[in-house]
Amino acid sequence: MENNLGRVLDALPAMVWTALPDGSIDYVNGAWSDFTGVRPGKICSWEWRALVKPDDLPRLVERWQSILASGEPGEMEARLRRFDGEYRWFLVRVSPLRDKSGDLVKWYGVNIDIDNRKLAEQAITESERDLKLMIDTIPVLAWSADPDGKAEFLSQYYLNYVGFSAEEARNQGWTGAVHPDDATKLEVAWQATIASGSSGECEVRMRRFDGQYRWFLFRVDPSRDETGNVIKWYGVYIGIEFRKQALEKLRRSEAFLAEGQHLARMGNFSWHVAKGEIVWSEPLYRIFEFEPDSVVTLDLIASRVHPEDIPLMADMLEAAERGDGHFEYQLRIVLPDQSVKHLHVVAHRIEDRGVQTEYIGAVLDITRHRLSEDALEKVRSELAKVTRIMSLSVLTASIAHEVNQPLSGIITNASTCLRMLAADPPNIEIATETARRTIRDGNRAADVVGRLRALFSKRTAMIERLDLNEAVREVIALASGELQRDGVVLCTELACGLPFVAGDRIQLQQVVMNLVRNAADAMSAVTDRQRRLQIRTELDNDNCVRLSVQDAGTGFGPNCLERLFEPFYTTKNDGMGIGLSVSRSIIECHNGRLWALSNDGPGATFSFAIPVYSGDEAPLPEISVSRAPDGSAHNAGGFHDQRVSARLSCR
Ligand code: ADP
Question: Which CATH superfamily does the domain covering 256-362 fall into?
Answer without folding.
Answer: PAS domain (3.30.450.20)
